[in-house]
Write a structure and sequence with these properties.
The chain is 26% helix and 16% strand. With 248 residues, the chain is α+β, with helices and mostly antiparallel strands. Among the domains are: 38 residues; 83 residues, 2-Layer Sandwich (TolA/TonB C-terminal domain), CATH 3.30.2420. Strand 2 and strand 3 form a beta hairpin. The model has no long low-confidence stretch (mean pLDDT 77).
Length: 248
């Protein structure tokens, strides 16, 4: 008698599979539902745990312009300066260098006192006789500073002419009936004398007006300019008019 193939080898056939189909279907469905529930529940639990408490603020009602307050400032704040003291670097100590014997300073060097230095630099000139028996003559020239023509010299009181030398009228200009005006620039020293003179603005002719005006400038006399209560040398400018009259 022949035996069925499934019974011979102990396998499952369609009958056995059908008998367990419903149980496997229920088990799979429950497992899938449980997995979905775990995922959804975990997501919900994460949302609840990470959610922040909502704080409801009372709104501010602005009824007038005064409720707005001052506008914000537009000026930039001043930068803060770090005033923390910095540590000073330690001084560097160098290695002494050898020097020649003639440059070595002895420890027993005697330094001259202030009185001794004063006698060396400026000897006593109150006595008319020096230590050697000779006479002491003080002859220090008083050198006056003379400014340049374009140099500005501040003065409190400007120089004032107190005597003007009348220049010689050029002979050829008189014969030709020529008249002119010459501007002279003169250097007046502390004594009111003219040390230098030059033509500031020429007459424009070669009749000798310029030379006559400069020659007469050296014979003019001025009241010197004053600065800090003392006379100073300054440059002054003035005009010299050459006019033909009946006396000329």
């Amino acid at each position: 008698m022949a035996r069925p193939f499934n019974a011979m080898y102990g396998g499952y056939g369609a009958y056995e599979l059908k008998s367990k189909y419903q149980r496997n279907m229920i088990t799979g469905t429950l497992f899938a539902a449980l997995l979905v529930a775990i995922v959804v529940g975990g997501a919900y639990l994460y949302t609840v745990l990470t959610a922040e408490d909502t704080i409801y603020m009372q709104p501010t009602v602005i009824k007038t312009i005064a409720d707005l307050g001052p506008p914000p400032t537009i000026s930039k704040p001043k930068p803060r300066v770090d005033i923390t003291p910095t540590a000073k670097a330690a001084p560097k100590v160098g290695i002494p260098k050898p020097v020649a014997d003639d440059e070595v300073v002895e420890d027993d060097v005697v330094i001259a006192s202030r009185e001794e230095l004063a006698e060396i630099v400026a000897p006593d000139v109150t006595s008319p006789i020096d230590q050697d028996g000779g006479n002491i003559i003080v002859d220090i020239p008083d050198e006056e500073y003379l400014p340049e023509p374009d140099e500005f010299v501040p003065v409190e009181i400007p120089a004032e002419m107190i005597y003007e030398e009348v220049p010689d009228y050029p002979r050829l200009a008189r014969q030709a009936g020529m008249e002119a005006v010459v501007w002279v620039k003169a250097l007046v020293d502390k004594g009111g004398n003219v040390k230098k003179a030059m033509v500031l603005k020429s007459s424009g002719s070669r009749a000798g007006f310029d030379e006559a005006a400069v020659a007469a400038a050296y014979k003019c006399k001025f009241k010197p300019a004053i600065q800090n209560g003392r006379p100073v040398a300054v440059w002054v400018s003035y005009s010299v008019e050459f006019t033909l009259t009946e006396a000329n």
